[in-house]
């Protein structure tokens, strides 16, 4: 999803609607931060892996880097 697509979806909601992210193990958390991150697509992702990973996970410079907006929840860093 791009920023434009996310904004379009959010604009359909009442302004007081909470926006949440997945919690650490179960449930959902409030969003606490939105940060830009350099990522690459992880072509060999397993079911438990994210489709994108940070650059430090790869030693090859041939992977196409993408700038993504990452939504952080209160406990998401514990994953």
Q: How does the helix and strand content classify structurally?
A: mainly beta
Rg computed from alpha carbons, rounded to a whole number of angstroms: 15 Å
Number of helices: 1
Considering DSSP H and I runs of 4 or more, what fraction of the residues is helical? 10-25%
Distance between the termini: 22 Å
Order of helices and strands: HEEEE
Give the number of DSSP strands.
Answer: 4
Which residues sit in consecutive blocks of at least 5 with pLDDT less than 50? none
* Main beta-sheet annotation: 4 strands, antiparallel
Provide an overview of this structure:
With 79 residues, the protein is mainly beta. It has one domain (3-78). It contains one helix and four strands, in the order αββββ. It has one helix spanning 3-11, and strands at residues 20-22, 28-41, 52-54, 65-73. Strands 1, 2, 3 and 4 form a four-stranded antiparallel beta sheet that branches. The longest helix has 9 residues, at 3-11. The two termini are 22 Å apart. The mean pLDDT is 85.
List the helices and strands and how they pair.
Elements: H1 3-11, E1 20-22, E2 28-41, E3 52-54, E4 65-73
Antiparallel strand pairs: 1-2, 2-3, 2-4
Task: Summarize the structure in short.
The protein is mainly beta. It has one helix at 3-11; strands at residues 20-22, 28-41, 52-54, 65-73.
What would the keywords be for this entry?
1 helix; 79 residues; single chain; mainly beta; 4-stranded antiparallel β-sheet; 37% strand
């Amino acid at each position: 999803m791009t920023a434009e697509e996310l904004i379009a979806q959010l604009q359909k909601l009442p302004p007081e609607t909470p926006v949440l992210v997945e919690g650490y193990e179960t449930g959902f958390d409030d969003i606490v931060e939105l940060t830009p991150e350099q990522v690459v697509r992880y072509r060999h992702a397993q079911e438990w892996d994210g489709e994108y990973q940070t650059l430090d996970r790869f030693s090859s410079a041939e992977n196409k880097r993408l700038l993504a907006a990452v939504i952080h929840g209160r406990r998401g860093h514990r994953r």
